[in-house]
Amino acid sequence: MTIEYDEKGKFYTNVIQKVAVPAIVQTTKNLIRGMVHVRQDERLKDELENSEDFIAMTNVEVLDGDGKTAFSGSFLAIQKDQIVWVMPASGEAGQ
């Protein structure tokens, strides 16, 4: 990691700071609960509108059509083309 300072003391780094936001994501096949990672001072909507093809989720639980857990894991990258809707969730992932 590199850190550069300007003449006013402001620093710049190549590391992008993100905040984990509890969310529920409906894809074309499954419902996913977990934490979506959003840049600091941005909204969940902003993360969906950026130019990247995938969104990162951690502490995920993927539910099938019957509401049963089909998969759970520490990381999942979801292709944005497969997302039907997204909403912030209150509480921790999986609740």
- Beta-strand segment tally: 7
Kindly identify the CATH topology: SH3 type barrels
Strand order within the widest sheet? Answer: 6-5-4-3-7
Give the averaged pLDDT, no decimals: 86
Measure the end-to-end span.
36 Å
Outline the structure in words:
- The protein is mainly β.
- The protein has a single domain, classed as SH3 type barrels (Roll).
- Helices cover 6% and strands 55% of the residues.
- The protein contains one helix and seven strands.
- A hairpin with a 3-residue loop joins strand 3 and strand 4.
- The radius of gyration is 16 Å and the shape is elongated.
Question: What's the SSE blueprint?
Answer:
Layout: E1 3-5, E2 11-13, E3 18-27, E4 31-39, H1 44-49, E5 54-63, E6 69-79, E7 83-88
Antiparallel strand pairs: 1-2, 3-4, 3-7, 4-5, 5-6
Structure in a nutshell:
The protein is mainly β and 95 residues long.
Keywords:
95 residues, mainly beta, SH3 type barrels, five-stranded antiparallel β-sheet, two-stranded antiparallel ribbon, 1 helix, 7 strands, 55% strand, elongated
